[in-house]
Write a structure and sequence with these properties.
With about 80 residues, the chain is mostly helical. The protein contains 2 helices and no strands.
């Protein structure tokens, strides 16, 4: 089972995105066992979640600046939502 996990982790591209064409793991539909998660895989998921939250916070602070209303006239731009 550990070999399957290694194959799955090797199928990740350089930009850390999963590429199904490089996935060499072969699962049987009758196999009900779940793959074993390692601490390295869990830490990678945690790091991805932290980066996603950081990006979301930056977007949340930047979007009102772009689409927010100002005290000036409403000529041009997007209509209020």
């Amino acid at each position: 089972m550990c070999e399957d996990l290694k194959k799955l982790l090797e199928s990740v591209d350089d930009d850390n995105e999963y590429n199904p064409t490089k996935d060499a793991s072969n699962y049987n539909i009758k196999d009900t066992r779940k793959p074993i998660l390692t601490l390295a895989a869990l830490n990678r998921l945690k790091t991805m979640r932290v980066l996603k939250r950081k990006e979301q916070m930056q977007d949340n602070s930047f979007i009102p600046v772009i689409y927010g209303t100002s005290g000036e006239s409403d000529e041009g731009g997007m209509p209020p939502m």
